[in-house]
Amino acid sequence: MPLDAALPAPRALLANLPPAWRAPLAALAGAALILLPAFAEDWADMAGQWWNSSTYNHIVLVPPILGWLVWQRRADLARLVPTPWWPGLVLFAGAVFLWVLGTFAGFDLARQTACVAMLGALVLALLGPRIGWALAFPLGYMAFLVPFGDELIAPLQTITAQLTIALVHLSGIPAAIDGVFIDTPAGLFEVAEACSGIKFLIAMVALGVLVCHLCFASPWRRAGFMVLAVVVPVLANGVRAWGTIQAAQTMGLAWAGGFDHIVYGWIFFAVVIAAVLAASWRFFDRPADAMLVDVAAIEASPLLARLAALQVRRLVLLAALAFLVLGGQAWSAAADRLEAPLPARIALPQVPGWHRVDYAPQLWWEPRASGASHRLLGRYADGQGRTVDVFFALWSGQSEGREAGGFGQGALVPESGWDWRASGPALPDGKADRLLGKGAIPRLAQTHYRTGDLLTGSNARLKLANIADRLALRAAPTMLLILSTDASPESAQPAALEAFRRSAGPLDAWMDRIARAR
């Protein structure tokens, strides 16, 4: 059979489109083809995470799912008439502004969320509210294109460790827990980031939302299924970690590690999904032939009729969309060029009662501060033999690739031999973390950020301050100070850092003195 006989020609496909849809779809396709290259860097970063990170591999299925969801609605959509809608332009402007804020803060999640939101707003602007209502679920499901969830890793590590130690004790294995480390007769186990269960959880949430839409009509049953989709992966991950420890007691660490990788990666996840679906099957209450779009209700809705009346000429709308994109990117580029004046050299100052000694940690520890103009790392000691390590970094500005609070920056450098253990004692103006080097060397690290008059340990507060500066196109330096110690005994570490802080005086003034900012 000739190929042109087997597949409909493009002209035939266009001919089958209702006349009212041809110009709007052409405008939508053209705008999308311009929008995607305009933000190509962000889309490429997202695609790289989908393909290269096992946490987000499930997202490669989301685009075809979205296409299928729209295809299901094609007959109903053909009965509606698209209209250019100026409030969609307001939504698009909000998405562009979110992207600008994301670039100002060096916050990839905000930038990527904005890029996905722009596509959704584009649909609303060019096709109108009635089409938007008909496509409400696919437009909302686009949120799963964004690779989110890294913020949950640390709490999930802690939850998994607590569940695991409880199951280990119930099974009669003598064990002790210290943060995310579990010490057993077979060896020391760490609930690492890869073992937090985040990949299982976010994939299950994406599946759960889709199942709720397709298989349930009752909002209560949908809510119940989503509770299962969240709780079961967390509990199952604790069981998996316990099973690994249990296997190690009899078969050895190496065998248990390989078993955990194969079973959890290829079997365990599928078994848990099948079990959740099987347990929920009898509660599915949405008929297979239920309508996805109630066209009559959409056409009869007074609210949608009033909203649809807010029209604008399509060419004016497209011109405004282009202006917003160009304006947002120009604003971001101007902020990227901001550079605060910095001294040519900086040095760690004298601290009363303390003196500088050679930096000789038990295990090399050097925080990361990518893009910083100046970095200092040194060790102080006092007359009582206490030692404190000081790391200081100074940036002339914050932009992509040089964020003080970016991923992998600060006290815990990935794949450096140091692992996060637990949060340290609370600080009013900083953040404390307990680290463990090579499974044996404890270290307490206290992180402080400084910009303008702000002194904080909160990465979120730092980013908000950086955003405010860049919105106003105001150049301001950013500083990072980490006070740390690996002294023994571990119980004396908080007191050593507190003694150093008292001797140094107010940390905000101390940091300003190092940076010569006041």
TrEMBL record:
GO molecular function terms attached to this record: hydrolase activity
Membrane topology reported for the UniProt record: Multi-pass membrane protein
Methanolan biosynthesis EpsI domain boundaries: 317-506
Chain segments annotated as transmembrane: 50-71, 83-107, 119-146, 197-216, 223-243, 263-284, 315-334
Pfam families hit by this protein: DUF3485, Exosortase_EpsH
EC numbers, comma separated: 3.4.22.-
Primary site of residence: membrane
Highest taxon, organism lineage: Bacteria
InterPro entries tied to this protein: EpsH-like, Exo/Archaeosortase_dom, Exosortase, Exosortase-1, Methanolan_biosynth_EpsI
Top enzyme category: hydrolase
Record's keyword terms, sorted: Cell membrane, Hydrolase, Membrane, Protease, Transmembrane, Transmembrane helix
Subcellular location field: Cell membrane
NCBIfam families according to UniProt: 8TM_EpsH, EpsI_fam, exo_archaeo, exosort_XrtA
Protein name (database record): Exosortase A
